[in-house]
Amino acid sequence: MTRPDPKQVKVMTDVAGVPQDSEVSARIANSIGPAFDGFAPISGTLPMDLEPASFLLVQNAKVSK
Questions:
Q1: Contact 3, 37 (CB under 8 A)
Q2: Largest CB tally within 10 Å, which of 9, 12, 17, 26?
């Protein structure tokens, strides 16, 4: 997968059921972009793919005690 742009991040998070606005999409894309750039030389050879929607799931999770 190549470095996602904010529109792609928005689509992925919407599909994952974690709606958010365009500003958040841009922040996520900018923050995870360097990781995608770093993995570019070995792209397609890993047994997994990076997916930014889980970031919001973790951030929005409620902690129960």
A1: yes
A2: 9
